[in-house]
């Protein structure tokens, strides 16, 4: 299986990019592969990775922010001696004030434009993207902008969106996943899908595929470090195998946990030990406020489709950005373990999000480059 790349909030409150295996564990020889350069187009943050394989080397495209907070797309190439910072490959031009995010695909069926970039520009004074545009390239380094692919106008996208993932499914259908908000304060994000017979469109709004929700319950007694037994006001709506945040509205007391068992109507047992303690805590679904369909895949052509959703903003005034997995089925999309990407160090304890696998083609089926 291919490696995955995610971003995390690391040193000095800056986003940086890690490489991990399909098992969710750090990938050898090094897990941290891209950090901000402290100057230039990527001085402040690097996030939303989109890795592809070209001639046996992993090319990492990612959103980067300069010291003014202006986003653009940069390129880094992994090699035997480390990661090479190639530079900025897509900057805002014309009516674009910044580039919010991008998905890069090798399109081997198109010899004239073998690399496609689907990106979301911020236009004018509106704070978030409201349309998806296309850029193409012959070599993956020099890109030409081709115009608008899709502009969501449906309910739920009034105040903008972010493009998340694009791939071609086993039946030939192109599937475009994005999250969008209908709130001016962007306090809620839902996940959506559009479909097309061609990557160049026309794209048609297909469905809202996942809403934020879940539960938020009080922890009814002070808990000690290391416990797995959590007393709560009610276990109604809590599901074993789902991810939750144990904590409060501060970064100092917050942990991503998985519920292993409903022990009684007012006690749950966690899969892991509590690393936060004290009174006044909550147990809240990671997807309580915002969800993004970061990555869609099949392990084989016959496998069910699985989503890696990024959930964030469950506690509004602190950093909490985590990945949970779900599966397509006859009755819809169901949260279903394993949830592979467990934060593994101080640099990503509260933030480990936006996973994307290395791709050698545009298929939704995973393959090792």
Characteristics:
26 strands; mainly beta; 369 residues; 6-stranded antiparallel beta sheet; 4-stranded antiparallel beta sheet; single chain
Structure commentary:
The protein is mainly β. Helices cover 0% and strands 48% of the residues. The strands form six sheets. It has a six-stranded antiparallel beta sheet, with no helix packed on it. A four-stranded antiparallel beta sheet has the order 3-2-1-26, with no helix packed on it. The N and C termini lie close together (9 Å). The model has no long low-confidence stretch (mean pLDDT 93).
Write the layout of secondary structure elements.
Blueprint: E1 4-9, E2 15-20, E3 32-34, E4 45-54, E5 57-65, E6 71-79, E7 82-90, E8 96-106, E9 115-123, E10 132-137, E11 143-150, E12 161-168, E13 174-180, E14 190-196, E15 204-210, E16 216-218, E17 229-231, E18 243-247, E19 254-264, E20 267-270, E21 282-285, E22 290-297, E23 306-312, E24 321-329, E25 332-335, E26 353-357
Antiparallel strand pairs: 1-2, 1-26, 2-3, 4-5, 5-6, 6-7, 8-9, 9-10, 10-11, 12-13, 13-14, 14-15, 16-21, 17-20, 18-19, 18-21, 19-20, 22-23, 23-24, 24-25
């Amino acid at each position: 299986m291919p490696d995955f790349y995610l971003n995390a909030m690391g040193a000095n409150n800056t986003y940086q990019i890690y490489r991990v295996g399909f098992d969710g564990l750090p990938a050898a020889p090094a897990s941290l592969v891209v950090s901000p350069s402290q100057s230039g187009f990527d001085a402040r943050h690097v996030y939303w990775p989109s890795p592809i394989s070209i001639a046996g080397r992993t090319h990492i495209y990612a959103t980067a922010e300069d010291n003014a907070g202006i986003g653009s797309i940069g390129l880094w190439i992994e090699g035997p001696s480390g990661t090479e910072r190639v530079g900025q490959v897509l900057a805002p031009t014309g009516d674009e004030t910044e580039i919010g995010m991008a998905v890069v695909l090798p399109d081997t069926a198109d010899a004239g434009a073998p690399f496609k970039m689907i990106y979301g520009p911020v236009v004018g004074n509106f704070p978030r993207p409201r349309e998806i545009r296309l850029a193409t390239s012959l070599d993956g380094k020099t890109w030409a902008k081709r115009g608008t692919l899709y502009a969501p106008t449906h309910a739920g996208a009034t105040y903008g969106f972010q493009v998340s993932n694009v791939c071609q499914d086993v039946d030939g259908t192109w599937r475009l996943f994005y999250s969008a908000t209908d709130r001016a304060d962007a306090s809620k994000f839902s996940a959506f899908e559009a479909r097309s017979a061609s990557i160049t469109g026309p794209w048609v709004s297909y469905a809202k595929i996942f809403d934020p929700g879940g539960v938020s319950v009080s922890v009814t007694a002070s808990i000690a470090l290391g416990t797995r037994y959590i007393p709560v006001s009610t276990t109604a709506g809590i599901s074993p195998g789902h991810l939750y945040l144990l904590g409060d509205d501060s970064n100092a007391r917050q942990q991503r946990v998985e519920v292993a068992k409903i022990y009684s109507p007012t006690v749950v047992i966690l899969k892991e030990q509590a690393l936060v303690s004290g009174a006044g805590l909550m147990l809240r679904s990671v997807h309580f406020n915002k969800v993004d369909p970061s990555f869609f895949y099949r392990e084989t052509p016959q496998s069910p489709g699985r989503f890696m959703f990024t959930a964030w903003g469950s506690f509004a005034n602190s950093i909490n950005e985590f990945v949970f997995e779900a599966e397509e089925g006859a009755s819809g999309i169901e949260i279903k373990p394993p949830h592979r990407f467990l934060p593994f160090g101080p640099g990503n304890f509260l933030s480990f999000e936006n996973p994307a696998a290395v791709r050698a083609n545009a298929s939704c089926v995973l393959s090792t480059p």
